[in-house]
Amino acid sequence: MTSRAWVEHLMGMPVSIHVRCPDPRSADIERAVVAAYHELACLEDVFSTWRPDSHVSRLARGEIALAHCDPLIGEVIALGAEATHLTGGAFTTHLPDPTGHRLFNPTGLVKGWAVDRAGAILSGLPGTAWCINAGGDLLAGRHRHVPPAGQDALPWRIGIEDPHDRSRIARVVPVMEGAVATSGTAARGAHLYDPRSDEWIDRLASVTVAGPDLMWADVWATALFVGGEDAARAFDVALETRPGYSWWSQGME
């Protein structure tokens, strides 16, 4: 197997795509990677809160009604409501603006959801293992013809940094298929919002969640970071209907 990597700046962060396959420069690989980045760019056009011309920004300003938005916004609204319910209110897609008014801001959900959609495009590549890294949150997969063991199925090794010493790796997570998402304050400060207390959380720590889908891994990483024991109990309940996820914390003990 030979590896190759690409990187583009999308959704306000570097997004890299890595592949392992016999010929990573084949036309099929090139087309799939271009299509995956195109999917992410199209979703950024709809959901970006930084771009004034996005549907989400125009919706927040009252320039357009939901009925006139891209139908995907309705899908994300429904996913956000489900996430709020499953996490016991520890996760929300409505965040305070600088004046304190809560507005529809699905950024914390859309990133993982968008990467999951891009990953579906790569999953059809014969004999290929792949990984998408979106600002440190990762989704990995492989085609069904990539064997489950041996040199061709080497896992992607995901390093989780120590929030108290970002030069140190606190844990290495090997991933063949699935997602790893980390939420914390070491890199970006108090940017994680607790909707129950109406506070931005500033403690120096992080939570990592591993599981099948990046969207839900990222949702739970945020919810468990801000929600404490209540969110942990909600996580255990959610596992009964959405299994395959696990979590651990760095610096929250």
Tell me about the biggest sheet?
7 strands, antiparallel
Count of β-strands: 13
Radius of gyration: 18 Å
Q: Which word captures the global form?
A: globular
Order of helices and strands: EEHHHEEHEEEEEEEEHE
Average pLDDT over all residues: 93
Helix content: 25-40%
Query: By helix and strand content, what is the structural category?
Result: alpha+beta
Please count the helical segments.
Answer: 5
Write down the oligomeric state. Answer: single chain
Which stretches are poorly predicted, pLDDT < 50 over at least 5 residues?
Answer: none
- The span between the termini is 41 Å
The spatial strand order of the largest sheet comes to 1-2-5-6-9-12-13
Portion in strands: 25-35%
What does this entry show, briefly?
The chain has 253 residues and is an alpha+beta fold. It has helices at 27-47, 55-60, 71-86, 107-122, 214-238; strands spanning 2-10, 13-21, 94-96, 102-104, 129-134, 137-142, 156-162, 165-175, 178-184, 192-194, 199-201, 206-211, 246-250.
Q: How would you describe this protein?
A:
With 253 residues, this protein is of the alpha+beta class. 33% of the residues lie in helices and 31% in strands. It is built from 5 helices and 13 strands. It has helices at 27-47, 55-60, 71-86, 107-122, 214-238, and strands spanning 2-10, 13-21, 94-96, 102-104, 129-134, 137-142, 156-162, 165-175, 178-184, 192-194, 199-201, 206-211, 246-250. The strands form 4 sheets. It has a 7-stranded antiparallel sheet, with helices on one face. It has a two-stranded antiparallel sheet with strand order 3-4. Strands 7-8 form a two-stranded antiparallel ribbon. The longest helix is centred in the C-terminal third of the chain and has 25 residues, at 214-238. The mean pLDDT is 93.
